[in-house]
Amino acid sequence: MARYTGPKRRLSRREGIPLFGKDEKYLERKGAMPPGQRGVRRKKRLSEYGLQLREKQKAKRLFGVLERQFKNYLSRASKKRGEIGLSFLRLLETRLDNLVFRLGFAKSRMQARQMVSHGHILVDGKKNNIPSCSVNINQTVAIGPKFVDNIQVKKNLEEEKTLPAWLKKQALVGKVLRLPERDEMEQSINEQLIVEYYSR
Q1: Is residue 37 in a domain?
Q2: Distance separating alpha carbons of residues 64 and 131, to the nearest angstrom
Q3: 121 found inside a domain
Q4: Residue 110 is assigned to a structural domain of this protein
């Protein structure tokens, strides 16, 4: 399945949350309608399956993960001890592109993914261009020396952003201190619905 390349705001409107970091005002705009011709006049009540599907699609789009990879994360999570949903979210949160976003080096996960794939991010001092790479406890994530003077990066770092307690940042270097707890991860996702979707 190919990565979606159409209008990004359309996806945010469909899921009802800002997926790409800059749609908040657009979603709040009076009269904004869901995608589709003339929008949907009466909101249909979703079935249990429909709710599970929407939650799965929302999470996939939020983290920028394709179907096969998304399903693999759930398969890996099911083999770990503890709650499957919690392990699943931890796998998504500790992706390299998500960490670049969480550390404030990028304004969105999409921009973070681009920075990683272009080779501007270092993991433990070594270049890593794989956005889906899992970063482990005590590993560091930093902006490469050739990219520190980038105007967009400087602008991103100037913006105040609350750093999750499971991460530490000094200047242009971040570190994973521990695995995140549920209340420190993405709050707009109901991971149980996703687990139920794949358990059918």
Answers
A1: no
A2: 10
A3: yes
A4: yes
Average pLDDT, rounded, for the chain: 87
CATH number assigned to the domain comprising residue 143: 3.10.290.10
Does the pLDDT at position 186 exceed 60? yes
The answer to whether residue 148 scores a pLDDT higher than 80 is yes
Structural domain includes residue 126: yes
Q: Is 200's pLDDT higher than 90?
A: no
Number of domains in the chain: 1
Segments forming the whole domain that contains residue 112? 95-178
pTM over 0.85: no
Q: Which has more confidence, 32 or 54?
A: 54
Beta-strand relationship, 173-176 and 126-127 = unpaired
Q: Are 98 and 88 in contact (CB under 8 A)?
A: no
